[in-house]
């Protein structure tokens, strides 16, 4: 990855779309694709695609397009990474259980959900879709034992900051935050916020202004 350029957040958010596109193209037996073809498939204009790819060097040639196998290998090695991440879910309530039941089909070779944590005595000791639920008191032990790098946070807002600090202190490097608050953590910890209320409001706005 080209370290001389700062990659915009908007570009980073589109990278999983590109990875999925090239993965599907490779499965379909396609050898080369153009930015126009990618644009039509993903509904992203060609200029944006070329600009996104330019941050990572010369990934294609004018008049030739993009080699599917080469680009898929690039995304796997330099963006997704070749190592498999161990993930824990913090909060085994309705949302946490839904995530445990979700089939992360495109990520099965990139992540493993090694457990979930909750303080509810009725949930501790049970499992959902093969994922064991532990008490939150075991958080540090599980992170150390399973070498967990990523946590998915689905707790009430009132306890989210405290739990996030525990996660960071235990060695977690990235947090997918489903809680409605913005976590105040060290800048070296990457937090990706998903506020379902905000996303729905954005959807309603776009629908109204079609």
Explain briefly what this protein structure is.
NAD(+) binds at residues 91-96. Residues 17-56 bind DNA. The protein is an alpha/beta fold.
What features would you describe in this structure?
The protein is α/β, with parallel strands linked by helices. It folds into 2 domains: 9-77, Winged helix-like DNA-binding domain superfamily/Winged helix DNA-binding domain (Arc Repressor Mutant, subunit A); 85-198, NAD(P)-binding Rossmann-like Domain (Rossmann fold). The chain has 8 helices and 9 strands. The strands form 2 sheets. Strands 5-6-4-3-7-8-9 form a 7-stranded mixed beta sheet. The longest helix is centred in the N-terminal third of the chain and has 19 residues, at 9-27. It is found in: Cytoplasm. This is Redox-sensing transcriptional repressor Rex.
